[in-house]
Amino acid sequence: MADRELTQAPGDLSLSQIELIARIRWLIDLRWGAFVGVTATILITREVFHPPLPWGYLLATAFLIPLYNLFFHFDWQRANRVGREHLERTSSVLANAQIACDLVVLAALIHFSGGIENVFEFYFVFHMVIASILLSRRAAFGQATLALCLFAFVAVGEYVGILPHYNSPIGVRLSGLHTNSMALLAVLWTMATSLYVTVYLATSISSRLRKREEEVGALTRELARHAQELEAACDRLSELEHAKSTYARNVAHELRAPLAAIDQLLRSVTDGLQGEISDQAREAISRARARTRALLSLVNDLLS
Fold it and tell me: Which pLDDT value is given to residue 8?
């Protein structure tokens, strides 16, 4: 459906803008699956491992995903109804807002399920890959900074006691990791380097790919322009050929009647209808009549 809507985009959009507009809808559709996966993980963990986690908070946080996703879904539809120019102006804002909401929800889920002891904390990196693909380099680094701030807020908040800590039910847990200052610094440093390096590498690759796509698009448009020019030249040549043929037929038609009259006149002379002529004159008139009949035959061929 996104591809069908994309075909309505104005022709002056760049490939990166077209890609962003299409991927916004893709991100909305992907989030429905993420909601199902997160909810299923919470329920399975509760039934299988029975850890002492705030299940109500976890489920409430998970159900925030479809709520704000509905908002983005309806906003996308409204933008399409308003016009593609409006969607072009708001596409970057929509993409940034969606990723930011996902990061906030992810930080809350990590906090309620173990904090820095949760092995799913590196899902932040997954979001950075998406941000690097969809957004500009500056915006992607901004999302990385937001992710780091959210993760640091959870980690430091649990360390200083502002936020309660819940033991992680999954993965290897070091005893008191959230209260170990060296471990906290190590995790924060690892998270920061992972986020920023991921954004740097992903944006470098995606920018090169976009540049190649822009070059291919420019060549495609150039070829299309030359094809249109060639088609126009062929049409013009066809028109000229038609005009030439029409002119030749008109000229031939105008020549046929006089040539036929000359032939008839010469025939009347050779047949003696104009009086007796000498044999020498008859021979000369016969040759003239033969030439006239040859020209008349050529004219008839042009008209056929």
Answer: 42
Cα gap 179→53, rounded to integer Å:
19
DSSP three-state, residue 112: helix
Helices 137-160 + 84-112 axis angle, to 10 = 20
pLDDT at position 276 is 73
pLDDT over 50 at 56, yes or no: yes
- For residue 184, what are the contacts with CB-CB under 8 A and spacing of at least 6? 116, 155, 156, 159, 178
The first and second tokens of residue 103, run together, are 């990061």
200 vs 114, which has greater pLDDT? 200
**Three-class secondary structure of residue 47 per DSSP:** helix
Amino acid at 28: I
DSSP string spanning 264-293? HHHHHHHTTTT----HHHHHHHHHHHHHHH
Q: At 276, give phi and psi (nearest 5°).
A: -70, 140
Nearest in space to 23 (alpha carbons), one of 78, 86, 76 = 76
Q: CB-based contacts of 163: which residues, under 8 Å, 6+ apart?
A: 111, 115, 154, 157
More confident residue, 197 or 167: 197
Average pLDDT of the residues in 156-171: 84
Burial level of 273, CB count in 10 A (0-12/13-18/19+)?
exposed
Q: Nearest-CA neighbor of 19 among 146, 207, 198?
A: 207
Mean pLDDT within 1-16: 47
The structure tokens listed for 268 are 């009347």
**Could you tell me which residue, 155 or 169, shows the higher pLDDT?**
155
